[in-house]
């Protein structure tokens, strides 16, 4: 077991969580995240504001959703931001972390980027969280450097994605976080050899269930989007073959010059647009 250390910030003992209830008891006793405010300029013109949006999810199983954000949602959102003297910076770390990166550097990269988002927004970073049925990597306590445990209050049993959610949203009851939860009803349509890329079993499945329950308990319904999808095809153009899901509904509303948006794209854009507009007060 990792050494125990008294944490003066919240008067408890840092220790390994042996089961999920214990892990969440420790998590729910953590203090608010405090990062000094330092709004970045990001080489923007005088009078402009940098708006960072951090995307958090496991990678392979949310390939299509991340592509939709990068290729469709963010470019349109960027146009709106520029019309209001704001520079949009999407924080998508899929391509910024090499495969063989040491675990400590992975944590430092992800959480360091979130720290920059914290600095811009006084602890309430803009964050899009995509959750399905995979927990992703849950490191062993021996794989996490002491400085990560000390600075970010990492708790044994927590996945890397879960750590991002805690640091960027959960601990501060962040009103600028949007949680997009994908309906798993499409999973039976997947080929058996592909299914493990989209669904964990055993303890990891229980971890994901507990994470979603804790989010539902802590955040209001208007911050949580439940969306469905259906399988269109597979795509092997980016490494391992990936499934390309498409939303199972089309919005009847017509928005922005007669364009129709599927459920995920429309609501994802509306959520991001709304929290930026609310925080910075840049009204039409």
Fold and architecture overview:
With 284 residues, the protein is an alpha/beta fold. Helix content is 35%, strand content 17%. The strands form 3 sheets. It has a 5-stranded parallel β-sheet with strand order 4-3-5-6-7, sandwiched between helices. The protein has a two-stranded antiparallel ribbon with strand order 1-2. A two-stranded antiparallel ribbon has the order 8-9. 34% of the residues are buried. Helix 2 packs across helix 7 (263-280). Helix 2 links the parallel strand 3 (49-56) and strand 4. It is built from 7 helices and 9 strands; from the N terminus they run E-E-H-E-H-E-H-E-H-H-E-H-E-E-E-H.
Q: How many strands?
A: 9
Number of helical stretches of at least 4 residues = 7
Write down the secondary-structure element order. EEHEHEHEHHEHEEEH
- Overall residue-averaged pLDDT value: 78
Q: Please state the overall shape, judged from the principal axes of the Cα atoms.
A: globular
Going across the major beta sheet, what is the strand order? 4-3-5-6-7
List the uncertain runs: 1-18, 248-261
Main β-sheet, in a few words? 5 strands, parallel
End-to-end span in angstroms?
55 Å
Radius of gyration: 19 Å
Structural class by helix and strand composition: alpha/beta
Beta-strand proportion: 15-25%
The helicity comes to 25-40%
Organism: Ranitomeya imitator (mimic poison frog)
Keywords: Repeat
Protein name: DUF4062 domain-containing protein
Region (Disordered): 237-258
């Amino acid at each position: 077991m990792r050494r125990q250390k008294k944490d003066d910030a919240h008067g408890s003992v840092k220790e390994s969580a042996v089961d999920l209830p214990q892990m969440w008891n420790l998590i729910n006793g953590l203090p608010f995240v405090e990062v000094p405010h330092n709004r970045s300029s990001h080489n923007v013109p005088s009078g402009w504001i940098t708006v960072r949006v951090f995307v958090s999810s496991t990678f392979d199983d949310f390939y299509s959703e991340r592509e939709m954000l990068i290729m469709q949602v963010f470019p349109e959102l960027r146009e709106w931001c520029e019309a209001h003297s704001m520079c949009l910076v999407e924080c998508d770390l899929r391509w910024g972390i090499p495969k063989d990166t040491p675990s400590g550097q992975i944590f430092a990269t992800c959480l360091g980027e979130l720290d920059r988002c914290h600095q811009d927004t006084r602890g309430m970073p803009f964050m899009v969280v995509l959750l399905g049925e995979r927990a992703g990597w849950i490191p062993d306590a021996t794989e996490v450097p002491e400085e990560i445990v000390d600075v970010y209050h990492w708790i044994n049993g927590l996945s890397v994605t879960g750590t991002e959610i805690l640091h960027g949203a959960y601990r501060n009851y962040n009103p600028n976080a949007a949680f997009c939860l994908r309906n798993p009803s499409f999973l039976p349509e997947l080929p058996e050899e592909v299914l493990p890329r989209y669904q964990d079993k055993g303890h990891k499945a229980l971890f994901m269930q507990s994470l979603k329950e804790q989010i539902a308990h802590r955040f209001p319904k208007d911050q949580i989007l439940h969306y469905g999808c259906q399988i269109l095809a597979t795509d092997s153009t980016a490494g391992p073959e990936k499934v390309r899901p498409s939303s199972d509904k089309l919005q009847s509303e017509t928005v922005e010059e007669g364009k129709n948006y599927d459920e995920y794209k429309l609501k994802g854009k509306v959520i991001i647009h709304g929290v930026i507009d609310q925080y910075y007060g840049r009204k039409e």
